[in-house]
Amino acid sequence: MSKTELLYLNDSYLKETSATVVDVTDEGVVFDRTVFYPGGGGQIHDTGYIVYGGVEYRVPKVFKAGGEVYHVVEGIKLSPGDNVTLRIDWERRYKIMKMHTSLHIIGAIMYFDYNVLITGSSIYEDYARIDFPMKGMNKELAVSIVAKADSIAKEGHDVKTYFMPTSEALKNKDLFRVADVSKYAKYLGETVRIVEIVGVDTELDGGTHVKNTSEIGEIKFLKYESKGSKNRRIYITV
Ligand SMILES: [Zn+2]
Fold it and tell me: Are 125 and 15 part of one and the same domain?
């Protein structure tokens, strides 16, 4: 069990929080709670600052290791018990949230229209990409799928996050929108987090999302790539 309360799981819109240092290692600083997303599930980690004694110190990286969340803090040596403010780079994170929700819409189109499961996805600062095995895919089709995702986004669907017992979630294979569920099912805890884009998509997810798809603005097609004999990749931005 992590020492850190992961505030972004219940409120992706939290930009800052007060926090107390609970551990300091060569790798980074562990706080009792955090608004920083440490990366995972394809979504890049947050960046930002900690504020201590009225001074801002850069946090260029946050990561998870051994179940703990480590914040790399530049320019200061903190000690357990220190009280700080954690503040994320909100514009960067908000764009990442928009792109992550966009990928779920595209994933839903792939799943429900083409019966294809995702084999990988990554959300970076400026763009996101999604992979799936689909031999019949081509650039024209990729462009039309992104256009369909864009029009779905503009319909303004609410996005909800909630927790569910893992045993219950495992009964519904529609919730697992990636290939090889059996491979990672054993790593799931007692509850799993669900992200539901109402009327569009419901799946397991630990990332940060917008509250309504209308916030996305426009989902823009960037690039299409054929990776090997089977895998196809679509790049988007917002
Ligand atoms: Zn996701």
Answer: no
The span from the CA of 55 to the CA of 58, in Å, is 10
Strand order in the sheet with 128-133: 120-123, 128-133, 231-237, 220-227
Whether the predicted pLDDT of 1 surpasses 80: no
Report if pTM > 0.90: yes
How many structural domains comprise the chain? 2
Handedness of CA 202, 217, 219, 11 (dihedral sign): negative
Task: Please say which residue of 72, 88, 104 terminates a domain.
Answer: 88
> In angstroms, what is the span from residue 41 Cα to ligand 1's centroid?
6
pLDDT tens column, 144-196 = 999 999 999 999 999 999 999 998 998 888 888 776 666 767 778 899 999 99
Q: Which of 88, 115, 139 is where one domain is finished?
A: 88
Type and span of the H or E element at 191 = strand 191-197
Range of the domain at 23: 5-88
Ligand 1 centre to CA of 198 (Å) is 15
Query: Are 75 and 109 part of one and the same domain?
Result: no
CA of 10 to the centre of ligand 1 (A): 15
